[in-house]
Amino acid sequence: MSAMLLHKEKWSEFTGKLSGKNLWAPAVQGEMKKFARVAEGQTVHLDEDNTTVPPKALVFPQTETLCRFSLGQTDLELPGLDEEMVLLGVRPCDARAMALVEKLFRWDFEDPYYLERRERTTLIGLACNEPDLNCFCSSVGGGPASPEGLDILMSDLGESYLLEDITEKGKALVEEFKDLLEEAPADAVKQKEQLVEDAVAKIKWNVDPEGIPEALPQLWEDPLWEKVSAACLGCGICTYLCPTCHCFDIQDEVEGPAGRRCRMWDSCMFAEYTKHTSGHNPRPTRRERTRNRINHKYSYFVDKFGVIACVGCGRCSNLCPVNIDLIDILRQVKAAR
Amino acid sequence: MDLDKLRKTAAEIVSRDDVKYLLGWRRGTFGYRVAPYFIEDAAGVDELIFSPLCISNLATYLTLVEKLPVPRGQEPDQRKVALLVKGCDSRAVAQLLVEKGIKREEVVVIGLPCPGMVDRELLAEKYPETEAAAEVKWDGEDFLLVGEGGETAIPRTEVLAEKCRLCRHPNPVISDLTIGEPVEPWATADDSGVAEIEAKETAERWAYWEEQFSKCIRCYSCRNACPLCYCEDCILDRLDPTWVNRAVNFSENTAFHLARAFHLAGRCIECGECERVCPAGIPLGKLNRKLARTVREEYGFEPGLDPEAEPFQAGYKPDDPEEFIL
Amino acid sequence: MSEQFEPNIVAFLCNWCSYAGADLAGTSRIQYPANIKIIRVMCSGRVNPLYVVNALQQGADGVLVSGCHPGDCHYMEGNFYARRRLKLLKELLEFTGVDPRRFNMSWVSASEGHKWKEVVEKAVEDARAAGPFDQFRRRQIGW
User: In chain A, what percentage of residues exceed pLDDT 90?
Assistant: First the structure.
C-alpha cells in the first residue's frame, strides 16, 4: 500500500482525466442524491452527505436483464458485458457493503452477473470526516475510513486528498495518475488517522451489537416485534436503500413474440414477499417481516458468513417515514435479552 | 394545545372495554422525528403528544393493520380502534366510511383542530437535527422550536408544510369528540403547483414528469402511506395479468404513477402523505391535486366531507361534462 | 414528399353500439382509414383506464374508446361511468405531458356507420398530427 497526495488545485484535472473511464460520482437530483455518470471532462464536486441511493444500484441494478428470448428461436440471447466503470466518492460503509454482499453472491452458487460487474468496477472511496446523524459504522465492524471493498481510499486533509491504494486495481490506477500525485509525507497519514479518530468520536447515536446475534434466536416470539413493527407502513424504503439488502425476484416480461427474463430488487417488507402460490404467506404480518429484516442482518448472515450484514450507514433510520429506527430496535433487542 | 386534557381523554377512552387501542403520536427516537403510537393501556398516554410535527395521517393504520383469519373456536376481536385526527385525517376517515372500507362503529374518532403542521425536512434544512430529541410548539401564528439550544421562534411561512398552505379544512369534519377550539381556516395559497405545470407546453410537461418518474425506485411508500390505497389485492402486485411490470424504468414507472393518481381521482383528501414519504421527492401531490381540482370545479364534488356521499367514480350525473367526446 | 406517418390506433368499442356501428360501416362499404385496431369489449364502462396506458406502453400511437350514446347503454349506465373516468384520464394524460390528441372518446350508435367513419378519420388525423408515440413505450428501454 502506498500513500500519495493529490493537491486540491489538481482535483479538476484529476477528475477530468478520470471521467474518460466511465466515471460515476454522487449527483443531486431534486431531493434525491445518487450516483450518476460524469460527462467527459467534467469536474466532480464531493461533499459531506452520503447518497440516498447506495452505489449498490450500479453493481446490482434494480432491474437487470438476465436473458432475452423470442418465439421460434431456441437459443437464449445473453446480455453483453457492461463497460468497465469507476465509482468516485464511495463511502467506506457502502464499499464494505459490497464486500459483504459479494460473500453471498460467491456462496453456494457463483452469480456471474453480479461478480462480473463487480470485477469490472473500480471503487475510489472517500473517508468520512463528518459522520451523519444516523451513522454508526464504527459499531458494526467498519469505520469512517474502512478500506474493505475499496480499491483506493481517499481522505480529505483540507488542502489535499490522501490517496491510499488498497488493491492491485487501485495500485494500477494510482500509477496511471502518477504525474498529478506526490509522495505523501508521514504526517499526512498521521493526520488522516487523527481525522478518523475525531470522526468516530462524533458518532453518538449508536449501539454495541455485542450479544445481539446470539440473542435474536431466543427472542423469536418476543412481544418486542409487535411493538417495533406496529407503525411500519410495509414499504420498501429501508430495504431498497440499504446497501447490503440483496433480495431479488425473477420475472419474465413478454411483449408480442419476444421477451426477457429479468431480476429486480425485492423487499422482505412487502406483503407479497415469500407469498406462496396457494395464497399462504409464512410471514403474514409486518411483525414477521420486520423480524426477518433484523434477523437476516444480525443473525442469519452472521451464522453463514461470520459477520453482521449491516454497515451502519443509517439510511433505514433516517429515511423511514414513520421513525422505525434500527438503533432503537437493536437497543430494545439488547434490553429484552 | 391542551396536552393534559388530551392525555386525560385518551386515558379514559383507552380504558374502555370496547376499545382495543388508541392511535396517536409520540416523540420519535431522535431529532424532530415523531412516530405513530399505538396505546393499549392508560399508562401509555404519558408519551402521547400532539405537536406541529405530528404530520402523519393515522387513518392509514385503520386499513393497514392486518386482519388475520380467526382460529377455529375463537371469536373475532370486535373492539373499536380510537384514533386522533387532524382536519385532513378526518377526511380520510370520512372517505373510508363512504367506501365502506371501515364501519362507523369500528372507530372512535377524536378530532383535533389543526393550526398547521411543520415540514420536518424544511425545518431540518434550516435548523439541523441532532441526536437529542427536540420539540416544536405552536406559538400564536408561528412555531417555537424547543431544543438543546433553547427556544427559537420560527416564522410560520418558513417551515409550514405545503399541504397545510393549501389546506381548506383544518377542523375535523367528522369526530366523536373534539379537543381544543376550532381554528379559523386561513387564506390558502393558490400556487398548488398545478397551474404552473399546466402553463407549460406539452413537451415541457413531459420533460418535467419524465424526470420525476425516472427517479422513482418503486418502494411503494406512497401507496402504503396513503390512507385510501388499501386494496387487499393491489393491481400493482398482480402478476396475472401483469398490469404494470415490475421492472423499474420510466415506462413502467409512468404507468405506475398514472395508475396511482387515477385510482385516487375523486377520492384523494389531500393529506399529503404520499409526497411526504417519497424518498425521491417526487411531487405526487401535484398529480392528485390536479385531478382533485377537476373533480371539484367541473363536477362540484369534494371527497371526504360527507360520510353519506356517493363515491365519485361509482356514480354519475346524466349531465356530466362531455365536451371532450367526439 | 416523405412518406406519410401511419399511426397505430387501438380502439375499444362496446359490443352493442359502436362495434355494431363499425360493422355497419363495413357492410355499407364505407371507406375509413385502416389504422384502427379494434378490440371489442362488452361496454365502454368496462374499459379500465389502464388499458389506455397499457396500449400506449405497448406501441399504440393513439387510443379511441367508443360507446353508446348517453341513455342508450345496453347496461343502462355503463357509458356514464366511462365518461367520468375517461375524462379524468384524459386530463391526467394531458397534465403529465401526453399529447391530448392521442386519446379520443366517442359515442357511436349501431346505426351510425357514417359517424364511425368521421370519428376514425378524426382519431387518425389527431394521432398523425401528434406523431409517433415514444414517450413511455416499453420497447425503447433496453429490452
Answer: 86
Which of C81, C59, C61 has its CA nearest to residue C14? C81
Beta-carbon count within 10 A of C28 CB: 11
Question: Which of C36, C43, C37, C38 is closest to C16 using CA atoms?
Answer: C43
- Chain A residues in contact with B130 by the CB 8 A cut-off are 133
CATH 3.30.160 fits C9-130, yes or no: no
Q: Is A31's pLDDT higher than 90?
A: no
Contact C102, C62 (CB under 8 A): yes
pLDDT in tens, chain B (326 residues): 689 999 999 999 999 999 999 999 999 999 999 999 999 999 999 999 999 999 999 999 999 999 888 999 999 999 999 999 999 999 999 999 999 999 999 999 999 999 999 999 999 999 988 888 889 999 988 999 998 878 999 999 999 999 999 999 999 999 999 999 999 998 887 768 899 999 999 999 999 999 999 999 999 999 999 999 999 889 998 888 889 999 999 899 999 999 999 999 999 999 999 999 999 999 999 999 999 999 999 999 999 999 999 999 999 999 999 998 98
Q: Which of A32, A63, A234 sits opposite B247 (nearest CB)?
A: A63
Contact A233 B31 (CB under 8 A): no
Residue C143 confidence (pLDDT): 57
* Chains with ≥3 CB–CB distances under 8 Å to B: A, C
User: A274 to chain B: which residues are within 8 Å by CB?
Assistant: none
| Cβ–Cβ gap A68/C143 under 8 Å | yes
Interacting residues of B92 by C-beta distance below 8 A, sequence separation 6+ = B57, B59, B60, B85, B227, B228, B269, B271, B304
Q: Is C16 exposed, middle or buried (0-12, 13-18, 19+ CB in 10 A)?
A: buried
**C44 in contact with B, Cβ within 8 Å:** no
β-pairing verdict for C36-41 and B142-147:
unpaired
pLDDT over 70 (residue C141)? no
Tell me, what's the pLDDT at B147?
Answer: 83
Q: Distance from A2 to chain B by nearest Cα, in Å?
A: 37
Against chain C, the chains showing at least 3 CB pairs within 8 Å are A, B
Residue B57 has a CB neighbour count (10 Å cut-off) of: 27
Concatenated DSSP letters for A80-136?
A: PPPPPEEEEEE-HHHHHHHHHHHHHHTSSS--HHHHHHHHTEEEEEE--SS--TT--
Whether chain B has a CB inside 8 Å of the CB on C60: the answer is no
Q: Nearest CA to CA, how far is A74 from chain B (Å)?
A: 24
Instruction: Inspect the interface and report whether the beta carbons of A255 and C142 lie closer than 8 Å.
Output: no
Indicate yes or no: CB of B221 within 8 angstroms of CB of A237.
Answer: yes
Q: How far apart are CA C99 and CA C104, in angstroms?
A: 11
- Domain range annotation of chain C: 9-130
Contacts of C139 in chain A (CB under 8 A): 255
Cα–Cα–Cα angle for B295, B229, C66, rounded to 5 degrees = 50
Q: Which of B80, B102, B61 is nearest to B20 (CA)?
A: B80
State how far the Cα of B126 lies from the Cα of B5, in Å rounded to an integer: 32
pLDDT score of C123 more than 90 = yes
Place of cell 460524469: A38
Is C97 close to B209, i.e. CB distance below 8 A?
Answer: yes
Question: Among A115, A49, A101, A119, which residue's Cα sits nearest to residue A243?
Answer: A101
Q: CA end-to-end span of chain C, whole Å?
A: 34
Closest CA to B247 of A32, A292, A260: A260
